[in-house]
Sequence to fold (987 residues):
Amino acid sequence: MTLDLSPGFGVYVHWPFCAAKCPYCDFNSHVRHQPVDQERFAAAFATELATMRRRTGAHEVTSIFLGGGTPSLMRPETVGAVLDAIAQNWTIAADAEITLEANPTSVEAERFRGYRAAGVNRVSLGVQALNDKDLRFLGRMHSVSEALHAIGLAREIFPRLSFDLIYARPGQTPEAWTAELEQAIGYAVDHLSLYQLTIEEGTRFHALYHAGKFQIPDGDHAADLYAATQEITAARGLPAYEISNHARPGAESRHNLTYWRYGEYVGVGPGAHGRFLEDGTRIVTIAEKHPETWAGLVEAQGHGIVDGEVLSRSEEADEFLLMGLRLAEGIDLARYEMLSGKTLSGRYLSRLQQDGLVAPIGNSRLRATPQGMIVLDAVVADLAR
Amino acid sequence: MSTPISHIRNFSIVAHIDHGKSTLADRLIQSTGGLELREMTEQVLDNMDIERERGITIKAQTVRLKYRANNGEDYTLNLIDTPGHVDFAYEVSRSLSACEGSLLVVDASQGVEAQTLANVYQAIDNNHEIVVVLNKIDLPAAEPERIREQVEEVIGIDASQAVLISAKSGIGIPDVLEAIVNQLPPPREGDATKPLKAMLVDSWYDTYLGVIVLVRVIDGVMKKGQTIRMMEANAKYLVERTGFFTPKMIQADEIGPGEFGFFTGSIKEVADTRVGDTITEDRRPTAHALPGFKPAQPVVFCGLFPVDAADFEDLRAAMGKLRLNDASFSFEMETSAALGFGFRCGFLGLLHLEIIQERLEREFNLDLIATAPSVVYRMAMTDGSVKELHNPADMPDLVKIAHIEEPWIRATILTPDDYLGGILKLCQDRRGIQADLSYVGKRAMLVYDLPLNEVVFDFYDRLKSISKGYASFDYHLTDYREGDLVKMSILVNDEAVDALSMLVHRTAAEKRGRTMCEKLKELIPQHMFKIPIQAAIGGRIVARETISALRKDVTAKCYGGDVTRKRKLLEKQKEGKKRMRQFGKVDIPQEAFIQALKMGDN
Fold:
């Protein structure tokens, strides 16, 4: 089998609204008590996409990702309008992966057929837990039965389906987690995202955690849960292809692979980031986070970009390393050399290799071993110096 | 025109840190018109940023004040501002020896402190008349009467004429000026017709003028165009400029007997001048040279290494520049297996060390690693010779050493009664021998003999922490005594780190080793493997700790919008690693080399 390792060209669209803010989430999400003016936002997305098209030039779009926020709060017509706008600016590949993030509440599940009709061919459901007590702790608005219903519906409607679980929850024993994971694998089609709960700054959990209201599994315990997760998913045919992502071989998320393979992507919408080549150099775009402010900027100047940078070679090399080593397939050493203008530091590389944290794949690639994956941030810090 | 000797007063101000010496100096300058109000910054005499920030004076300064007294006559008052800290006691002593009187400034609420005592006794030893000034009398806690009694009782000088002031609020400043004129004597000798005899008080390097020499003329007159001779250094120079400070530098044609002033000539380096040297006219020399001073000897040594090895030459150049102005700071090249190329540096004390390190980092933008401060040990060798040891890493073969001697100090500590127990224990733990314990009102005055190596590191910090900042401390070196000292090595991941080795007393070795290992366990970050840390004396391990391996360190979610943040984190991590030293496979943060030695509260 020959692997297609080309990074592709993706378009990310950020829908910044949620029905409620989850206490663990530090993404750019906003709760509105009045109905959101969806036509206004659809028009603003179209305007910003056209501006981006002028900067990126012509490309074949290999993936589109509607993330959030809660994109399943978008009306199917809004989704359709955004996809049309993308198609007007670039060519969308025939086999393009078009993902929409959805919450498994019954209200949102009702719109699944509409999304499919608009062109969405993959959904990523925020299931997060398969017991009601933990769902409440995580601030989720759905129950386990709603989630199972949404999974069932999505399996019928969409060719591809993934769902997320958050583990290493307070008091979660390895036994409880492995049982829940086995159950989840039973419902899964070909993809699962399994995240360890982390406490992010600026979230409600951050305040509660630092006030001592709850504890989460510590380093050793968390490491054991991680190891168990790797073992079970591999045994059930959904091995990790990235730190927190598992798929049947061939069913990996094309869009997310673009990030990890350090490909080009356009980001539109409030708070979205993009990275693409402009005049031969990789640039970063960062949009205004506040939704209405962003829309106002787009209406006034054609885009909501408020920040960005032109990456230097060494910055590109660092980003390539820290993204690429998250993948089981590792990184292409020749591409690293091309980006950074130097070879990976021999001294640290051979030491990490001796310690069994990284390993070569053939002559041309380097990957983190399972022992290396679990301390990847430290491995990258050593390799990057 | 020189002022007649009877109308000259040369005085210095002695005080404990924070008792208001610099503020009083500011007020005296301001009220005699030395500087316009708009030219006044706080602590005008403390030129260096470090001096202002720390509220200390490092280099001596002189200021000539013009004062018309209440009796209608004009006086020239020369204020010699001196450092207060024990590390600079040497500069204090030479400044004091160049004048006839002192203002003793005492905080009217806090009273006499150890530093006050040390400095005032030096002034008395120099036959100074003393004007007692009680400062901060406008504070609610001020008790001028009680403090006046305390000064008489503790110091044994007459305080009935004490001047009550608030330098900060400007209260009582005219009274200070009158007291200077009326209570302090004019210079004791001075004859303009005799051959030139002047004392070299200080010297420093100025980028534009070269070396500037501060002098006190005793007999004769110093003039522009004169060829002078420095008698001890045996060097001749042509006087190019003469003048004085107000504190602005003012050129004047001559400096007469009894006066302070400066001159410049073609002197290349501060090291060419010797403080205390007698300056005379080459053509008509004085017959009697002044007794002179012993040059200050460094008592504390430590290694200074650049964090980035590429900065080595910059460090050498920066040290050379600092040395231009500070002959008491010495350095020579050193190589450490752990830290690479650097310098072994000698200092007058710990404050001096900190100041030099800070100036190197701040004024020259260098990142430095400082190793454990060490005192100078004397090794009596079996072949009868004596070797000085400045660096524990250079310890000779044990079988060749007959015995080791270490420097001892006599320390004076003044403390409120409440903290006496804790301080006695601290002195006891540091091998101290009590010489005296007496009471001054509610405060205890402790006199202890202590080995300098027990004091050199964090004794002062510990003293401050035990006494909540109330105890004050001063010391002077007394003698060398034989000690049962052993070299302790620290092994990180089974390799000895030379920069962490030290000489310790045998009885304290195990405890010290344990503390070091515990500290290093906190200071060295977790690695991807476990790291044993051991303390060893000879081949024997006396303490051991293990840093466990990092189990999990990975970001759970990392998508397109997270890359920038993750890269910036990585850059910060890389920056942090640059500030660490690699030893074998282990990264040791630079601050660990100093922090590991702090004994803490046990």
In short: The first strand of chain B starts at residue 8 and ends at 15.
